[in-house]
Amino acid sequence: MATTANSLRLCVRACSQISTLAIRPRRAVLLRRALSTTTARCSDEGAFDDDDAGTSKFYDTAGDVLKDIAKSSEENARLAQPMLERWEQLSQDEVAKLDKLTKEVIQETAEIRRPVRITKNMFWNTNEPESDMVTDEIGEDEFEEDDMTSMAHGKLEEHREYREYARIAIWEMPLLAKFAQPFRPPSRNEVLRFRYTTYMGEIHPAAKKVVVEFSPADLKDLTDVQRLKLKKLAGARYNPEKDIIKMSCERFEHQAQNKRYLGDLVKEMITAAKDPTDTFEDIPLDLRHHKFKVKPKFPKEWFLTPERKKEIEAERQRSYQLDQDKKANGGLIDGIKQIQKMQQLEPVRERVPMRVLR
């Protein structure tokens, strides 16, 4: 089998030589006679034949290929001689099968081996195959308009993402139970509260943002004057209603860098608030940045007093007693009975006016 494959390979190699087309300038026909009644003919009938007609050789069988290779050089003769001997030992049926297979291979590769003819109408050689393409343009499957739309592909990708998270929830999430820790409320020394934003399943530019909140009242090592100075240093980041200073940072690429920057900034503000050289006592606390929203409260005068509740309950009892008396005397109208009575009556047909022709 190996010998047959080698013979076929050598045969295809010999037949797959690509003929090159030489671009030949047009020759002007020079007339030796000023006036002639006969047509001009070339002196050589084969002068305009294809110059490259003999560059490619075609063989009838693989044995002819091996014989030609053996005549080229001594090394090729030494390599081709064993295969040529085995080729001569093959039967007629095997030779016919190999010849048929060789012809099929040549026919299949004819489109690839065919040279591209350059014409004058070609603009920037647009018909030539792209040499920088990863895939081969020749012989690719054509689009048969049987694929899904882009929106359907997006929906399918979304479904794959849902299934991926479902697998994580079933197989990987239970393994995290051994790392669970009981909730521990923050101590008095942990006054900073950081907040992060995570966008599941995507890379978002806002995911690097970090927000820190703290209350000046939680800083026990500061005096009242120092806390007031800290509020003045915070400026518009101080909320007087909640007594909270809120700051954020997103100038760096990672969350850890922004968190570190905010931590250092809070330390610098506390250090500046403790500086006794200037306490900012002559500067008032500016709260113009915050708008106090007045929320109306329910008036206390409108609350129900115990006496008013007793009056309402007594009125309800009197109304209930009157209904019971009417029900006993038959004066209370039963709505269900009235509906059933009206349903038993025959419907009155409305008379429709008709136009009389005169």
UniProtKB/TrEMBL annotation:
Highest taxon in the source lineage: Eukaryota
Subcellular location as annotated: Mitochondrion
UniProt xrefs under InterPro entries: Ribosomal_mS35 (IPR017081), Ribosomal_mS35_mit (IPR019349), Ribosomal_mS35_mt (IPR039848)
Pfam families: MRP-S28 (PF10213)
Gene Ontology CC entries for this record: mitochondrial small ribosomal subunit
Mitochondrion keyword on record: yes
Stated role: Component of the mitochondrial ribosome (mitoribosome), a dedicated translation machinery responsible for the synthesis of mitochondrial genome-encoded proteins, including at least some of the essential transmembrane subunits of the mitochondrial respiratory chain. The mitoribosomes are attached to the mitochondrial inner membrane and translation products are cotranslationally integrated into the membrane.
Similarity section: Belongs to the mitochondrion-specific ribosomal protein mS35 family.
Name the UniProt record assigns to this protein: Small ribosomal subunit protein mS35
Provenance organism: Podospora aff. communis PSN243
